[in-house]
Amino acid sequence: MYQSSKIPREDSPVSIIGAGVAGAWQALLFAQAGHDVTLHERSDEAMMLSTSHWAGGMLAPYCEAEAAEPIISRLGLQALDLWRRELPDTPFNGSLVVAHRRDRNDFERFAKLTTGHRRLDATALAELEPSLEGRFRDGLYFAAEGHVEPRRVLPKLHQRIIAAGGTIKFNSEPAPDDIEGIVIDCRGIAARDVEPELRGVKGELILIESSEVSLARPVRLIHPRWPLYVIPRDDHLFMLGATSIEAEDWGVSVRSALELLGAAYAVHPAFAEARIVEFGSGLRPAYPDNLPRISIDNNRIRVNGLYRHGFLIAPALAELTLAYVDHGRIDNEVMRCV
Ligand SMILES: Cc1cc2nc3c(=O)[nH]c(=O)nc-3n(C[C@H](O)[C@H](O)[C@H](O)COP(=O)(O)OP(=O)(O)OC[C@H]3O[C@@H](n4cnc5c(N)ncnc54)[C@H](O)[C@@H]3O)c2cc1C
Prior knowledge:
Elements: E1 14-17, H1 21-32, E2 37-40, E3 58-59, H2 61-64, H3 70-86, E4 95-98, H4 104-113, E5 118-121, H5 122-128, E6 138-142, E7 146-147, H6 150-163, E8 167-169, E9 182-185, E10 199-209, E11 219-221, E12 228-232, E13 237-241, H7 254-267, E14 275-286, E15 293-297, E16 300-304, H8 310-327, E17 335-337
Parallel strand pairs: 1-2, 1-9, 2-8, 4-11, 9-16, 15-17
Antiparallel strand pairs: 3-7, 4-6, 5-6, 10-13, 10-14, 11-12, 12-13, 15-16
Helix pairs in contact: 1-6, 1-8, 3-8
Bound molecules: flavin-adenine dinucleotide.
Residues 17-23, 40-43, 47, 49-52, 54-58, 173, 186-188, 190, 203, 205, 241-242, 282, 284-285, 306-312 line the site of flavin-adenine dinucleotide.
């Protein structure tokens, strides 16, 4: 099933298509390694056409182990070091998992299926997050996890690419076949023309504003259907996320809105007075096994299928692609030669 593939020439120019989190990390590591990098993006700088724009931005390799394959934790742990190295101001102040009484069994199951957490009683929970005082009997604290604000971190990554000598062309939608040299296709769900197995898994979110609640880290609320969470942003904003629906339409349904807002209210009743700032949704690019792939066809490389874990794993995927181009190293779990 796997064929050998000719290693591209190290000194060829590298064109990356798609400046979402996958493409941005590829461009950054290749530019830093001395390659002549051009990153093409069909959106303008606001990146409204990328799934990454709509993401929560949690860097949560331990929590994700509850539902994801071990490869996600492996790549995620590798990636945390890269986030720390490239953007040292990334907050790594952990994440919390809490549950209401009726979801107690799911909470215990979550605790059993994950590592890297410490159980906090109500007092310790309130010390860590004073706004949660009296709200929950206990919680799981994943101290080593982090989170980024996608709408701030993508421009920062883009700036670092330019600082490393790369070029970014916004409003640029080249045909891959017309490009010389190495092409790394990071078009996410738009790459379906060459990756017919890709599907979009819709994630809905709501942005709210409240000055009555203050959180320092993402709080996940155990829920029988979806991992619902509240992520604090700057300026008293909170992102409520995220549904996971096998559909490729846009917008937020009334039912999803009720569930997301209900989760916020369950975390803290003061959220009832919060102002709704935005409803939004994005399509997570996923293969049937929900695992990421680096597909290599000589000097055409496709990085896709980041599904629910783009921010968590993109840096590690970029490191793997670079190791292949520079040294011919193949990671059998993620790469396939086509
Ligand atoms: C609601 C929600 C919450 C999420 N929360 C998290 C989270 O907390 N943590 C996490 O790790 N992940 C999270 N994700 C998943 C994450 O957002 C995705 O895995 C990730 O954004 C995929 O990145 P990508 O770069 O592959 O695709 P995209 O971000 O979609 O980037 C692809 C880019 O390619 C561009 N493009 C397409 N075609 C062309 C072309 N022909 N020429 C030029 N450019 C082109 C597009 O405009 C786009 O900017 C979440 C997703 C959603 C929807």
